[in-house]
Specification:
Helix content is 81%, strand content 0%. By secondary structure, the protein is mainly α. The two termini are 20 Å apart. The longest helix is centred in the N-terminal third of the chain and has 35 residues. It has one domain.
C-alpha cells in the first residue's frame, strides 16, 4: 500500500512539475519537447509490451485481449468528446481556437490521469517490479502531459492556471484511495483491469505522445525513442519479474 501511494505521489509531482515548468519556461520547452516526449514514448511502449501486456494476459487469460481493446475504444471515445492536445507552438496560443475549450481538456486529462493511478495500482497488485516500471513510465509521461495541459488552458501566468494543473495532477494519487477495495479482486479480475489500463496506455502513447514528436521535426527524436526502449529493457534485464 505504501509503495502505491509513493508511486502515485511521484506521478502527481511529475505532472505538477511539467505544468509549472511550462508556466515558467514555455518557449524553451517548446523547442526541446521532442526528445523528451520521444524518450517517454519509447519507455511507455517498452513497459506496455515487455511487462504490462504479458502480465495482464497471464492473469486475465484470453479475455484480456477484449479488455485491451475496450481500453483503446474507451480512450478513443474520451478524446472524441474532450480535446486533449495542445497547439504545436506556445508562441501562437492566441491564434488557436481550441484553447477556448481548455477546461474541457482539463476534465479529459483528469480522467486520463485517474486511470494512470488505477494502472499503477493494478500493476503493483500483479507484481511490485511491474508496478515500479509502470510508475516510471507514467512519471515520464506526466512531465509533457502537465506542459500540454498548461498550453491548453493558460494564456497568461496567473494563480487560476496553477490550480487547474494541481487539481488534474491530484487525480492520480486519488485513484490510489481505491486500493483497499480493489485489493480483494481475484487474479483474473486484476489481469482484466490491467489489460484495460494497458489498452489506454497503448492508445495514449501511439495517438498522443508519438504524434507530438512530429511537430518538432527533431532528428534526435528517433534516437531518444530507442533510448527509452533500451532503458526499460535494461531495467527488466537487471530486475527481472519473478
Amino acid at each position: 500500500m505504501l509503495a502505491i501511494f509513493l508511486a502515485t505521489g511521484l506521478a502527481f509531482l511529475a505532472f505538477l512539475g511539467g505544468g509549472l515548468l511550462s508556466h515558467r519556461f514555455a518557449h524553451f520547452i517548446t523547442r526541446h519537447a521532442g526528445p523528451v516526449i520521444a524518450f517517454a514514448s519509447g519507455a511507455m511502449l517498452a513497459i506496455t509490451f515487455f511487462h504490462v501486456l504479458p502480465e495482464s494476459v497471464a492473469l486475465g487469460g484470453e479475455h484480456a485481449f477484449l479488455a485491451i481493446l475496450a481500453g483503446v475504444v474507451f480512450f478513443f471515445t474520451l478524446e472524441h468528446f474532450f480535446y486533449l492536445h495542445g497547439c504545436p507552438d506556445h508562441a501562437h496560443q492566441g491564434e488557436c481556437e481550441n484553447h477556448a475549450i481548455g477546461p474541457l481538456a482539463a476534465i479529459g486529462i483528469g480522467v486520463h490521469s485517474f486511470f494512470d493511478g488505477v494502472l499503477i495500482m493494478l500493476s503493483f497488485f500483479a507484481n511490485p517490479v511491474i508496478g515500479w516500471l509502470t510508475a516510471l513510465g507514467i512519471v515520464l509521461h506526466n512531465l509533457p502531459a502537465g506542459a500540454i495541459l498548461h498550453s491548453l488552458i493558460c494564456h497568461k501566468k496567473d494563480r487560476k492556471s496553477f490550480w487547474w494543473i494541481f487539481a488534474v495532477a491530484a487525480t492520480t494519487p486519488c485513484a490510489a484511495l481505491l486500493a483497499p477495495a480493489l485489493k480483494n479482486f481475484s487474479e483474473q479480475e486484476i489481469g482484466l483491469g490491467l489489460a484495460f489500463s494497458a489498452g489506454t496506455l497503448l492508445y495514449i502513447t501511439l495517438s498522443d505522445l508519438l504524434p507530438e514528436t512530429h511537430h518538432t521535426k527533431n532528428k534526435l527524436n528517433l534516437l531518444f525513442l530507442l533510448i527509452g526502449i533500451g532503458v526499460i529493457f535494461g531495467l527488466g534485464y537487471f530486475f527481472p519479474v519473478e
